[in-house]
Specification:
Elements lengths: L3 H16 L9 E6 L4 E4 L15 E4 L4 E3 L8 H10 L5 E4 L3 H8 L9 H6 L12 H5 L2 H13 L9 E3 L5 E5 L2 H24 L8 H12 L13
Antiparallel strand pairs: 1-2, 1-5, 2-3, 3-4, 5-7, 6-7
Amino acid sequence: MLLQDLREAVLDANLELVRRELVLYTFGNVSGISRQQGLVAIKPSGVPYESMSAKDMVVTDLGGRVVEGALRPSSDLATHLEIYQHFPDAGGIAHTHSEFATAWAQARRSIPCFGTTHADYFHGPIPVTDDLSPDEIAGDYEKNTGLAIRRLFGPGVRGGIPAALVAGHAPFCWGSTPAEAAHNAVILESVARAAYYTVGIAPNAAPLARELHDKHFLRKNGPNAHYGQAKDTQ
């Protein structure tokens, strides 16, 4: 079986979305990529999480052709592939319809950084795409969704903001691994909820000061990060 370790990592990341209550029924999906082999493993379409196993993860090439697996891949595969092809540091992608992040996407509003929890993970607001045109919707809809995400960031991956809201749809997050992508989806939902409550309490709340935003993000993610333990600590 191809990419057994990746299949297992993708399965566990999908189940993490369930454990953290970010998905209902068969909503959402996580994928992972082997850059060396040019292959992607992704959740099968419409299969309940409780019945999935690692062997059910579908393996495709970067053109979307199924190379292993008896089930159809997620209907969002083309969106994932577009992100992988143009964000070279992405090793995993998580897509949910989590309640608060989806509400911001439906409102077509980016999520401002109001506090340090947001700043610890995202080096700026969580952006929202433009609406797709009627032609984009009628054409290759899933690929065009990925292109809309790409347009938010330009070339390469914007490591400081590993997430985007698709207008009228829901969030996509990515990370260096499927587990990290799922982790970012969990954090995104948390900051989306906090931002929603902040706006409800103080509609004119100001974003966090840039200096404090930078301090929190860089102490955890910058070249001289000092949050947590050294990687060689046992």
